[in-house]
Amino acid sequence: MELRTLRYFVAVAEELHFGRAAARLHMSQPPLSRAIKQLEADLGAALLHRSAAGVTLTPAGAVLLDEARALLDQADQVRVRVASAAGAATLTVGILADSTDRGGTRLAAAFRRRHLGVEVRVRETDLTDPTCGVRTGLVDIAVTRVPFDETGLTVHELRADPVGAVLRADDPLARRDRLTLADLAERRWFRFPEGTDPMWQSYWSGGEPREGPVVRAVQECIQAVLWNGTVGIAPLGDDLSAELAVVPLTDMAPSRVVAAWRAGGTNPLIRSFVEIATAAYRD
């Protein structure tokens, strides 16, 4: 069995859908289906039940899924140990500026425990690049937020955070238990510079064109609220100063924390990083 075929099978087994698995693997569905059928023939066992309702694992498929995950993880560890012995085990991680998420703290500790010999380089970016350098190849993987253009990237969701409007504490709306976007329609919002990913810009301006100051960093957003009464948006639970209030927005989609990397990325540490990050952000 080739490791590539096992990766194909794991994708199908986790997605339980050939179309989604093919998209995740950045390949078309017919060769994926042929590879799985050949794997079943090689093993002499049916691994999947296929029906109009979707795909489910057979008992043999469930066993192979556990074994395949272990084999793929072991293969990645071999690559990492060899690279470490050669003095070449590095991972460059992109993060958004002013990120104080406790999930990130847990991720760093857990990754360090598992990969003692790996040098992790962290590259912090401002709010104008939601991919944190992934698209331009400056980093191997990023922990960031969507939405943004995902063309050519693989994106794995880690957590979804409800969001609220950031207001000055003395703002009349700050006394409300909840708000809607319509409540803020006449207010000034912060904007990102020209050329920023339009999906990213649209989300943080509530899906509408807005007037207001142009900002590049989290602290600039906060200062715009404090000095000018501009509306900001932040995940609920963020630590902000006593001069600010965050009021839940009931009709705005959650902000999703994700790991993102270039499709076909070859750094063997990426798979392990995503696995550790998934656990760290779930706790």
User: Beta-strand percentage?
Assistant: 15-25%
What is the count of helical runs?
8
End-to-end separation: 35 Å
Oligomeric state as shown? single chain
Query: What is the overall pLDDT average?
Result: 89
Largest sheet: 5 strands, mixed
Helix content: 25-40%
What is the β-strand count? Answer: 10
Inertia-based shape: elongated
Question: How are helices and strands ordered from N to C?
Answer: HHHEEHEHEEEEHHEEEH
**Could you list the spans in which at least 5 consecutive residues all have pLDDT below 50?**
none
Structural class: alpha+beta
Record the strand order, biggest sheet: 4-3-5-10-6
Itemize the secondary structure elements and their pairings.
Blueprint: H1 3-15, H2 18-25, H3 29-43, E1 48-51, E2 54-57, H4 59-85, E3 90-96, H5 102-114, E4 119-125, E5 141-146, E6 153-161, E7 163-168, H6 198-204, H7 218-228, E8 232-235, E9 244-248, E10 255-262, H8 269-282
Parallel strand pairs: 3-4, 3-5
Antiparallel strand pairs: 1-2, 5-10, 6-10, 7-8, 7-9
